[in-house]
Amino acid sequence: QVQLVESGGGLVQAGGSLRLSCAASENIFSFNVMAWYRQAPGKQREFVAHITNGVSPIYTDSVKGRFTISRDNAKNTWSLQMNNLKPEDTAVYYCNARRSTDYYWGRGTQVTVSS
C-alpha cells in the first residue's frame, strides 16, 4: 500500500511563505500525477496544483503566481512552495498521487495564515 506523508505546515502571517513536502513510500516515477489539494473549514476539498511526467504543472487560479509545485525524483518527494500567503489559504493541505485508476492520499498538514 502506498503511503504519503506531508510535512511543512504551520502558522504564518499574511505575506509570508511556507514549503510543504510529500514523501512517498514508493518510486514517484510509478505515479501518473502528483498533486496538492486543500480543505478549509466548512468547505469541500479543492484542487490546488498538480505535476505530471513531461507536462507543465497546473494550478488553480487563486494560487497562480504565488505557489509552485515541484518534484525531487531522487528523494521520492514533491513539494509546494507557497509565497505571499493570504488568510484565505488557511486549510488542511493534502498530497495526492494517482497511478492508473488508483488514488492515494496523505493525512494532511495544517496551514494557518493570520491577517
Q: What series of H and E elements makes up the topology? A: EEEEEEEEEEE
Global structural class: mainly beta
Distance between the termini: 40 Å
- What does the largest sheet look like? 7 strands, mixed
Rg estimate, integer Å: 13 Å
Count helical runs.
0
Task: Provide mean pLDDT, rounded.
Answer: 96
How much strand content do the residues show?
over 45%
What would a concise description of this structure say?
With 115 residues, this protein is mainly beta. The protein is built from no helices and eleven strands. Strands 2, 4, 5, 6, 9, 10 and 11 form a seven-stranded mixed beta sheet that branches. It has a four-stranded antiparallel beta sheet with strand order 1-3-8-7, with no helix packed on it.
Structure in words:
- The protein has 115 residues and is mostly beta strands.
- The protein is 0% helix and 57% strand.
- The chain has strands at 4-7, 10-13, 18-24, 33-39, 46-52, 55-59, 67-72, 77-82, 91-99, 102-105, 109-114.
- Strands 2, 4, 5, 6, 9, 10 and 11 form a 7-stranded mixed β-sheet that branches.
- A hairpin with a 2-residue loop joins β9 and β10.
- The protein is globular, with a radius of gyration of 13 Å.
Q: What characteristics describe this protein?
A:
single chain; 115 residues; mainly beta; seven-stranded mixed beta sheet; four-stranded antiparallel beta sheet; 0% helix; 57% strand; globular
